[in-house]
Amino acid sequence: IIDSMKRLVPVFPSILQYINQRLKHRDRWVGALAATTIPLHMIYGPLDPVNPHPQFIQLYQQLVERSTVSVLDDHISHYPQLEDPTGFLNAYLNFINSF
Description:
By secondary structure, the chain is mainly alpha-helical. The chain contains 6 helices and 2 strands. It has helices at residues 2-8, 12-24, 26-35, 55-63, 80-83, 85-96; strands spanning 41-44, 68-71. It has a two-stranded parallel ribbon.
């Protein structure tokens, strides 16, 4: 995990631009998620500092009613695919296999 995070450090400034972009494009992005007819699934780490738990999940489920959600273990944060690859994969496969 530490090696993976070290590789991310050089791209943090571009990733952090997302914070400004999500405010600017919120209506468009949320509207697209809410309007889609394809299945959606959120895989979420409850220690995510960008999207705090449980408020973010509650709001997400109100806005994107058709989506399902997997909340991973309490120690998982903003990069669940790196922090808990097995938990992330299991949540993904459970979603895919639900069809």
